[in-house]
Amino acid sequence: GLGVLPRPMAALGAYRCIECNGEATELYRDYQRGVLRISICKSCQKPVDKYIEYDPVIILINAVLCKAQAYRHILFNTKINIHGKLCIFCLLCEAYLRWLQLQDSSQNTDPDDLIRYAKEWDFYRMFGIASLEQTSFFIGIFITLWWMTPEMLKRKSDFILLLKALLLSTYGKLLLIPAVIWEHDYTPLCLVFIKVFVLISNSQAIRVTLNLNRILPWFAIFIGLILENGVVCLFQKMEWDV
Q1: Which tens digit of pLDDT belongs to each residue from 201-236?
Q2: What are the transmembrane regions (predicted)?
Q3: Closest CA relative to residue 81, chosen from 197, 200, 163, 175
Q4: Cα 21 → chain centroid
Q5: Do 122 and 216 belong together in one domain?
Q6: How many angstroms separate the CA atoms of 120 and 125, rounded?
Q7: Domain range for residue 117?
Q8: pTM for the whole thing?
């Protein structure tokens, strides 16, 4: 039977074919009594969304492999509203990692309450810095894409969809916690791999959302990284540990 079933019917263009990105009015048709038939795309003559038959674990694995079809299924053909909570949790993970590294570099072991409050404030500061860096990264991406492809971002809904895609594609930051818990000599290398994986996911999310080639998303990410690093340099000049 069908594993994960989105809404059965919608207006024209509400769904997308995961193969060719063509518009579709429905993903499947319900003939009652448990008889369901997956819709066929009129453009490529393939199933509009084969993933509605798949188990969520399989969909997640395909998303981790950065398959465009899995990204289209998640972004266009399902109702997932966890992007805000996921963003906050990822920022908390990043803030915790930075806070932990800050504590490791500190030699002060005084158990005084004032010291504990100062350390707690350090965590909130790391969260604020991580939030500002990610915001500047996204702003760099949006400005670049709006400048290069203004026809792709004409409406407010286009910006919202792209923001949702970017937030969802940062799920790789959740790997920061296992990297810290299973601390070993290769932790810095693991952090580099996690960063690269998140950037690849961001690139695929941009590509799928706006139906672009591979070059432009990476160019937008490059500009976003420049802006993000500019914020880091600003904090360093202010003598804030980042």
Answers
A1: 999 999 999 988 889 999 999 999 999 998 888 877
A2: 126-147, 159-182, 215-235
A3: 163
A4: 20
A5: yes
A6: 9
A7: 81-241
A8: 0.82
